[in-house]
């Protein structure tokens, strides 16, 4: 066979197979529009996409928006799996959406676990609602605060919580839960302590600067009392690891010291009046109860010196209030 015959045979073979190749291999087209649209997918496919769209447009200002988002994504992935398995018979679509479904279920479970209702002991619910809940302290954080290194203690009427010049201020910090306590200096009544108030907030503030001090007042249970007591050292370490709670304690202790200043100037101040004053307090919380007690001690040991000091502090507070209101 010469070259001419082989070339003609090749041409005839190519010409003969061209229609078959054209039917097998796609021929590129210059047209950019689809001539034949496929039929619309099953309703399950569209409902799945609607779930995705609803989940993505949920506003972030909604309180539970992350839970709703993960819930809609979980529902959408489930419908996609149903569509791919029953109507499309696409194994790859089913596998990928199964993976997405597992991820969303895990995340949704975690979010629901964080939002679970945290049970607070009935005896502690009062101080949580009164002191911590208005400052947006989460219940789980409050439970951590009150569940690890503190205890509830009891004092019978007439028993002493602290004795002046004897009891160390470095040991504990307490909040009164029930009953009433009386604070006195060298036998002179200063003020009462009512439930949901710190017992030794001035001493806690003073020990942040000086260690090894003693109580300068005597605190006695005027009724049968129960109080929540923290170990001061362990509480300090815990607050260092929780900056948000540390700022909350600074505010609450400063506010409590201010309440004690008011009650010192007005010994008739009771619990109901103290609640009303909480919204009107404007005194500077930098005034230390320790400085006040030192002033009492240095002024005079007599009744006359004590009364002069009380009159002086009362007039100073009145001037501050008057200047603040004007």
TrEMBL record:
Domain POPDC1-3: 41-266
One GO term describing the cellular component: sarcolemma
Domain of life: Eukaryota
Membrane-topology descriptor: Multi-pass membrane protein
Keyword field: cAMP, cAMP-binding, Cell adhesion, Cell junction, Cell membrane, Developmental protein, Glycoprotein, Membrane, Nucleotide-binding, Tight junction, Transmembrane, Transmembrane helix
Transmembrane segments: 40-60, 67-87, 93-113
Subcellular location: Cell junction, Tight junction; Lateral cell membrane; Membrane, Caveola; Membrane
Molecular function terms, GO-annotated: cAMP binding
InterPro entries documented for this protein: cNMP-bd_dom_sf, POPDC1-3, POPDC1-3_dom, RmlC-like_jellyroll
Chief localization: other
GO biological process: cell adhesion; heart development; regulation of membrane potential; skeletal muscle tissue development; striated muscle cell differentiation
Subunit structure: Homodimer. Homodimerization requires the C-terminus cytoplasmic region. Interacts (via the C-terminus cytoplasmic tail) with TJP1. Interacts (via the C-terminus cytoplasmic tail) with ARHGEF25/GEFT (via the DH domain). Interacts (via the C-terminus cytoplasmic tail) with VAMP3. Interacts with KCNK2; the interaction enhances KCNK2 surface expression and is inhibited by cAMP. Interacts with CAV3.
Family: Belongs to the popeye family.
This protein's name: Popeye domain-containing protein 1
Organism in which the protein naturally occurs: Callithrix jacchus
Lineage, opening ranks: Eukaryota, Metazoa, Chordata, Craniata, Vertebrata
Gene transcribed to yield this protein: BVES
């Amino acid at each position: 066979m010469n070259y001419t015959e082989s070339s003609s045979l090749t041409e005839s073979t190519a010409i003969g197979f061209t229609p078959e190749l054209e039917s097998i291999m796609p021929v590129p087209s210059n047209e950019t529009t689809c001539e034949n649209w496929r039929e619309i997918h099953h309703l399950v496919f569209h409902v799945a996409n609607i779930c995705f769209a609803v989940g993505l447009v949920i506003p972030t200002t909604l309180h539970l928006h992350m839970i709703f988002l993960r819930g809609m994504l979980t529902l959408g992935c489930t419908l996609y799996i149903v569509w791919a398995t029953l109507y499309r018979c696409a194994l790859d679509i089913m596998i990928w959406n199964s993976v997405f479904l597992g991820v969303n279920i895990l995340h949704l479970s975690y979010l629901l676990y964080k939002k679970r209702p945290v049970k607070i002991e009935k005896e502690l619910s009062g101080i949580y609602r009164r002191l911590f809940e208005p400052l947006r302290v989460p219940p789980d954080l409050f439970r951590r605060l009150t569940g690890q290194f503190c205890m509830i203690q009891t004092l019978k009427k007439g028993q002493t919580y602290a004795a002046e010049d004897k009891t160390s201020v470095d040991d504990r910090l307490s909040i009164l839960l029930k009953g009433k306590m009386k604070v006195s200096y060298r036998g002179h009544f200063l003020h009462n302590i009512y439930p949901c108030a710190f017992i030794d907030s001035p001493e806690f503030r003073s020990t942040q600067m000086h260690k090894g001090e003693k109580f300068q007042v005597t605190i006695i249970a005027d009724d049968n009392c129960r109080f929540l007591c923290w170990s001061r050292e362990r509480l300090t370490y815990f607050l260092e690891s929780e900056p948000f709670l540390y700022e909350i304690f600074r505010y609450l202790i400063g506010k409590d010291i201010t309440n004690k200043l008011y009650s010192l100037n007005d010994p008739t101040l009771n619990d109901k009046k103290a609640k009303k004053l909480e919204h009107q307090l404007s005194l500077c919380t930098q005034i230390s109860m320790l400085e006040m007690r030192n002033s009492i001690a240095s002024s005079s040991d007599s009744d006359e010196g004590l009364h002069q000091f009380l009159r002086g502090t009362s007039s100073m507070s009145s001037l501050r209030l008057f200047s603040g209101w004007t």
